[in-house]
Amino acid sequence: MGNEYQLVSLEDCSVELIDCVHKTPKACTHGYPYIAIPDMKDGTVSLENARMISESDMIAWNTKCNPIPGDVILSRRCNPGVTAVIPDEFRGTLGQNLVLLRSSEKGIDQKFLRWVVKSKQWWNEVNRYINVGSVFESLKCSDIPKFLIPLPSQTEQKAIAHILETLDKKIEINKK
C-alpha cells in the first residue's frame, strides 16, 4: 500500500477501538476460548492452546468487549502492534492487553482494515506511538485512534482486500 493514498486517522475512518476486560478469568478444562497474545500467529488466531473459560465468565467478559468474526485484534503489550482477525463462527472472548478494531464501514471496509494493519505505514505508527518507558513496551488506547493509515476509495479498498484474501486462501491451500 503505497504513498499514493491520503493518510487518515483510524478515528476519522470511523474505526471503533473496543478495549478488553483488564483481568483474567479462571481457566476451565472445557468451555469457551479466551484469546491471549500467544494465540495470535501470522495474522490469525490459533485456538489449539487457548485457555478455556466458563460460559458465565465469557458472558461477563463479552459485556465490555464482544468479538465478532472479522474484527481485528490488536496487541497493546508484549508484541505491541501485532494483529490477528477473529475467525468465522468464533464464540469466546478476548484476553488482557488486547483491543478490537471494528469499522462502521463508513470510512473503511473491515476486510481492508485487516490488511492495512500489516502495512509498513501501520508499523511506522506503532513505532511512533510505542511507550518504551515502562517494564513492557506498550501502546496506549488513547493513542491508537490517532494512527494514520493509507485510505484508498471504497471501491479500491474492496478490490485490494479481495485480491489479498484470494492470495491468502491460495497460500493456505498450498500449505495443506
Task: Give your account of this protein's structure.
The protein has 176 residues and is an alpha+beta fold. It has helices at 55-62, 110-116, 120-129, 154-175; strands at 7-9, 15-19, 32-35, 40-41, 44-45, 51-53, 72-75, 83-85, 93-94, 98-103, 148-150. A hairpin with a 2-residue loop joins strand 4 and strand 5. The chain is globular, with a radius of gyration of 16 Å.
> What's the number of extended β-strand segments?
11
Oligomer: single chain
What coarse outline follows from CA principal-axis ratios?
Answer: globular
Note the beta-strand portion: 15-25%
Radius of gyration (Å) = 16 Å
Give the structural class: alpha+beta
Order of helices and strands: EEEEEEHEEEEHHEH
Distance between the termini: 28 Å
The largest sheet is: 4 strands, antiparallel
Count of helix runs: 4
Mean pLDDT score: 91
Helix fraction by DSSP (H/I, runs of at least 4):
25-40%
Strand order of the largest sheet: 2-10-7-8
State the low-pLDDT regions, or none.
Answer: none
Key descriptive features of the protein:
176 residues, alpha+beta, four-stranded antiparallel beta sheet, three-stranded mixed beta sheet, 4 helices, 27% helix
Topology readout:
Blueprint: E1 7-9, E2 15-19, E3 32-35, E4 40-41, E5 44-45, E6 51-53, H1 55-62, E7 72-75, E8 83-85, E9 93-94, E10 98-103, H2 110-116, H3 120-129, E11 148-150, H4 154-175
Parallel strand pairs: 3-9
Antiparallel strand pairs: 1-11, 2-10, 3-6, 4-5, 7-8, 7-10
